């Protein structure tokens, strides 16, 4: 089925997959081009992933970091936003197949920009996901919020000291920027926001453990900034375990193996996984049909113009692409997407694909907020931490948040949580807290029923 109500036109058809940093920027860059754009995305929103941890820990609401893509694009008349999950790209017939609630659609393209991003990787142990959700989607963040706050509630009702300790032990796996930010926020939530709110437990006694396989926190940011973040986290009471690999995760805890070969079990009801990424399976789909190669994380090894071999009209950008020297960060996706859109525009005006200059990445630096008033930042050769880095972090995140309304609401929420211990988004629902386990149960029931039906 083609898209119902879609206007048929003879214009050059650009299909974009994904409404994240890559997809949205590609579409916006083509706003004045004489093309017909279809933006296919599996969520209705554009998600600002860097602030997901603030949704998980009750500072921001999901609406503040995930405005509807349709509303962002409402004035761009050459673009249509279509909801659906792209499942297959036919490189020969130049079509994209997508599904929405069991209905299938086929969308033809002349040019295709794929920006489907990456999901969480459990390094072959996908069963860990049930007990240690990742931090990739709004669903993940809300579920984690439910689990974190739910653990305090259950601990309040428990008279068993062993169970209480397990409920008040929070483990974050992976000390990259997300893990560091998450650990810092759970520590501040328990030490400050929830202080005095319970009668039988003392939330400030909660343990927050951060586990990292490398020998420092924030491995991509180097030893100096890693040490700064480490010190700050320890000051917040976070227990850091380095050179430590998680080898098993279950409902009640996890097993950690250390460099010296010893292993230890940690009893913990709430685990957060922020240890690895796996690119969209669409990369493997391309590799099956062309000379495209993918790396171990499933990222597409693109050519210097970000296209795939034999298909100069198919670009792969952002977290789905492997480009030497380009980190899996928002800037990589934004710059790659704009580069691809610029090529489409230039070639529609007559430029030859043979004259393409290779993609050049401009490194604007990276940052991580460790806690309220403290961050670490790397800009060019400059490395700094503390309050100044935190101010820079604030400013930069505000600039890149999409839409005036999101920026305004975020500033208001931040003002509240920075000037007081309060947080405005501590609502949790039972559905959020148990979502993953319930869905797994439903899937198991469906599998049994399918088997019975033959
Ligand atoms: C928790 C977290 C914190 C981060 N913090 C920072 C930070 O501080 N600074 C920084 O620079 N970067 C940060 N990043 C990384 C940054 O968010 C990513 O590099 C960036 O989002 C990549 O953009 P993208 O467009 O490639 O993918 P995404 O932004 O992930 O977008 C992918 C889009 O594709 C859609 N999609 C996926 N599969 C399909 C499909 N089959 N069909 C249709 N649509 C599909 C998704 O729904 C989504 O809309 C963070 C990431 C996470 C997860």
**Strand fraction:** 15-25%
Counting structural domains, the number is 2
CATH topology of the largest domain: FAD/NAD(P)-binding domain
Total number of beta strands: 23
Identify the CATH class of the largest domain. Answer: Alpha Beta
Total of helices? 13
In whole angstroms, the N-to-C terminal distance is 28 Å
**How is the largest sheet built, in terms of strand order?**
3-2-1-7-19-18
Segments where pLDDT lies below 50 for 5+ residues?
Answer: none
Per CATH, the superfamily of the largest domain is: FAD/NAD(P)-binding domain
Family: Belongs to the NADH dehydrogenase family.
Catalytic activity: a menaquinone + NADH + H(+) = a menaquinol + NAD(+); a quinone + NADH + H(+) = a quinol + NAD(+)
Subcellular location: Cell inner membrane
Organism: Mycolicibacterium brumae
Question: If you had to describe this structure to a student in words, what would you say it looks like?
Answer:
This protein has 454 residues and is an alpha/beta fold. It folds into 2 domains: 187 residues, FAD/NAD(P)-binding domain (3-Layer(bba) Sandwich); 150 residues, FAD/NAD(P)-binding domain. Helices cover 35% and strands 24% of the residues. The strands form 7 sheets. A 6-stranded mixed beta sheet has the order 3-2-1-7-19-18, with helices on one face. Strands 11-10-9-15 form a 4-stranded parallel beta sheet. Strands 4-5-6 form a 3-stranded antiparallel beta sheet. β21 and β22 form a beta hairpin. α1 packs parallel to α10, α5 packs antiparallel against α6 and α5 packs across α13. The longest helix has 24 residues. The radius of gyration is 23 Å and the shape is globular. Bound molecules: flavin-adenine dinucleotide.
